[in-house]
Amino acid sequence: EAGEMIESLNIPKNATIHFAKNAEVTATIVDEKTVVFDGEELPIVDATKKAFKKAGTTGMALGLANWNYEGESLKALKDKK
User: What pTM was estimated for this model as a whole?
Assistant: First the structure.
């Protein structure tokens, strides 16, 4: 039983995703638009802003492009669908 998948991304719900600029910064994906970051359920864009702060870097908070799952960006995974 693989559990529920996030169809649009083809990855399991509650998968750990890694911040592209610092792989040690992680979140748990709830769905395409929502993640759990530092124990808070947040829209992915808000979590991305916090992840930039936590990683001590800056950039465009374009949600999916800033997070990787198994080495591939969520945006790339979505574009494959």
Answer: 0.90
